[in-house]
Amino acid sequence: MKNWLKAINVAVIIAAIFGGIFLRDLNSYRQMIEGITFSKVDIGVVPDGTYNGEYDAGMIYARVSVVVKDGEITTIKLLEHKNGRGAAAEKIINEMVRMQTIDVDAVSGATNSSKVIKKAVDNALPGSIQK
């Protein structure tokens, strides 16, 4: 019986430690998402080229390639997207190309992934604020 209680106590302690680590990481992730800011990059003055950018918010990560030609975004490729349940946000790329701006609405149900993808695109463009 004593061994049983010791095993339960050890399991509770381990669960508490992992729970604390998870809550710390979750809080850090939330702060990163809330702290995302976007640059006001004028696409019209960005030189032609292919630009790579990424943003890592811990639980969500995106890496993109952005092609600019004649002052327009012609292509955005999502090279990597660690997203949890935010895969729906990947369609935001088409909207950014269509609207020629990063300032598009987030995908409902995938708001945080949308913000991370948008920030990766922002980071790819010359003249952006890398934050």
UniProtKB/TrEMBL annotation:
Regions that span the bilayer: 6-23
This protein's record includes keyword Membrane: yes
Protein keywords: Membrane, Transmembrane, Transmembrane helix
Matches recorded under Pfam families: FMN_bind
GO MF entry, a single one: FMN binding
Organism domain of life: Bacteria
Domain FMN-binding residue range list: 55-128
Gene Ontology CC terms: membrane
Protein's name in the database: FMN-binding domain protein
Organism: Oxobacter pfennigii
